[in-house]
Amino acid sequence: MENRILKMQSEVFKDKIFQSLLQTIEAQKGVAMLIGGAVIDSIQGSPLKDIDIEVYGLSYTQLVFLVKDLDLPCNLVGKSFGVIKTTIHNIEIDISVPRRENKIGIGHKGFEIELDEKMTPKQAGKRRDLTINSMYQNLHNGQIIDPYNGLKDLKAGIIQATDKDTFIEDPLRVLRIMQLLPRKGKQVAKETMALCQSMINTFTELPKERVFVEWEKLLLKANKPSVGLAFLKDSGWLIHFPELKNLINCPQNPVWHPEGDVWIHTNMVLDNAAKLRPLIPEDWKLAYMFGALLHDVGKPSTTTSDLKAYGHDTAGINISEQFLKRMTDDKKLIEKVTTIVGLHMRPAQLFSSKAKEPAWKRLHNKCRLDILGWQSKADSAGRTGKDVILDAHDASEKCFELFDKFGETRIQPLVLGRDLITLGIQPSEKFKTILEACYEKQLNGYNKEDIIKSIRSN
Question: What is the DSSP string of 329-375?
Fold first, then answer.
């Protein structure tokens, strides 16, 4: 075990209330340990995003009173797991006592929880998924407690199960490796890969919400999400995502796609999208990344013997919807992703055909042009020898130029119902037809005055 003193990175740790919390724990003969991903962030000097603290030597009841006595928020929603949720500096902190988890049933709820403040970090760490997540940092003196050699694995980039018997109790751990490997490691230990392969049939135990969270982390946090996809393929878990598995060995015309099959292309596009991700508006980031992942899922069902895939964009709409519905009920997200998939070819098609502005307006009304521009740019560079950052992409630049002109939202109609009433037209079933015709004229470049004149002349 290696002891190291680490500088506390988070402002939370310097807060007077937090220091009072530590002092009170210590005065009552307890020890507060930082656990989980925050320890890795602390070692690597990264900002701490999630703060989980495990307190040894004090019971759950003692901790509850302690937190309340300091006038800190005290949310007991995690009581059955020995967890107290509190907040300092607007950062949520989970404070817990050590626990044992005994598998007694199927699924993530099939565990018997036993709280035991007398456990050692080594005993408590046995239930954790990976060695790198089984490290502790003593918050009183900064020392690293490393009972399972997680620091060695972290330095070597090895993703390794903490304990083979407890690892297989929760199938979610396989998907955690999917999203952690590209972020925290370089390779999965051979024994751990074998464990993952042995757990393929346990996927059905997972609620779709838990599956979605791991995909979300992969797509929003990994710099090279393709590493996670490669893990799914190597572990055999890609079978649970057939829309992606079908991309393997789906051929493409080597003239346009020298990189290889649709699987290889998709991996390249996804990594390109991750490079562009900081430029995407927050409320579109996840949809954009899922769009990159799923943009060509229509190709296996539409690719012909002469390697053409006409209509793959349209075919991909329902396929991508099926993929997403198995892991989320978020209708807005699904709508955004399927829209991106269905329209991802349009910028290049409009640009190559030298389409006039009205056609671009109609496209913008279906999906904001900047999103389609970034998607098209990531897609275009998903080929051998292309650089998504350095290479110019004319169709994308046209999207950005017109987005600046059109704005973020759908182009608003110039002629409204009140304008028709002013012209003496009584509200009726024809109103909708007349307004739609007016809007079409507007998209074609007519101003409001000309549109009104055309109504009067009819």
Answer: --HHHHHHHHHHHHHTTHHHHHHHTT--HHHHHHHHHHS-HHHHHHH
Tokens of 245: 């598995």
Domains in the chain, number: 4
- Phi and psi (nearest 5°) for 101? -125, 115
Domain boundary among 100, 132, 156: 156
pLDDT of residue 42: 86
Q: Are residues 181 and 67 in the same domain?
A: no
Where does the pLDDT of residue 380 fall: very low under 50, low under 70, confident under 90, or very high at 90 and above?
very high
Q: Looking at the structure, tell me whether residues 130 and 181 fall in a common domain.
A: no
pLDDT band at 5 (very low <50, low <70, confident <90, very high): very low
Residue 162 CB burial class (10 angstroms; 0-12, 13-18, ≥19)? buried
Read off the pLDDT of residues 92-116 as tens digits, 9 standing for 90 and up: 899 999 999 887 677 666 778 899 9
- Phi and psi at 199, nearest 5°, equal -105, 10
- Residue 155's pLDDT band (cuts 50, 70, 90): very high
Q: How far apart are the first and last CA of the chain?
A: 87
Beta partners for residue 85, in sequence order: 75, 94
**Is 427 domain-assigned?**
yes
Binning pLDDT at 50, 70 and 90, where does residue 3 land?
very low
Compute the residue count for the chain.
458
Our separate counts of H helices and E strands in the chain read: 23, 11
**DSSP structure string for 376-409:** HHHHHT-STT--TTTS--HHHHHHHHHHHHH-SS
pLDDT of residue 4: 43
Last residue within a domain, chosen from 220, 235, 250: 235
Structure tokens at 47: 């900002």
